[in-house]
Design a protein that fits this description.
Elements: E1 9-16, E2 46-49, H1 51-54, E3 63-67, E4 74-81, E5 89-93, E6 102-110
């Protein structure tokens, strides 16, 4: 019999837009090489994770349950990586109509 341990990691969550100012020069492609729809990036439901979270299993293509981020709570897929200066953080890829967003003590859990 296999024993599965499901745990939450507590992080800070922020938002980002697919723009050259917030990304690199190839701002319509994620670190996992997925193409971002420039007209509706929020429809992808993709997040970026800080590099320290990758060491805990939060890697490209994994589904994550996010709890405590209001309307952005729910299931997201990891498709991007944050700058190395960030730790213990996720970043929601959202449409430009969402201007601000930062949440402390957000719970995230791997689903696959």
């Amino acid at each position: 019999m296999k024993l599965f341990v499901f745990f939450y990691v507590v992080v800070t969550a922020t938002i980002y837009h697919a723009t050259p100012q917030q990304c690199n020069e190839d701002y319509l492609r994620t670190a996992s090489m997925k193409a971002i729809n420039p007209k509706a990036p929020g429809k992808h439901r993709w997040i970026a994770v800080s590099r320290d979270l990758e060491q805990k299993g939060f890697t490209f293509g994994k589904k994550v349950l996010v709890v405590g981020a209001g309307e952005l709570s729910g299931i997201w897929t990891i498709e991007d990586r944050m700058n190395k200066r960030f730790t213990n953080r996720i970043d929601f890829l959202v449409n430009k109509k969402i201007k601000n967003g930062k949440w402390e003590n957000i719970k995230i859990k791997l689903l696959n």
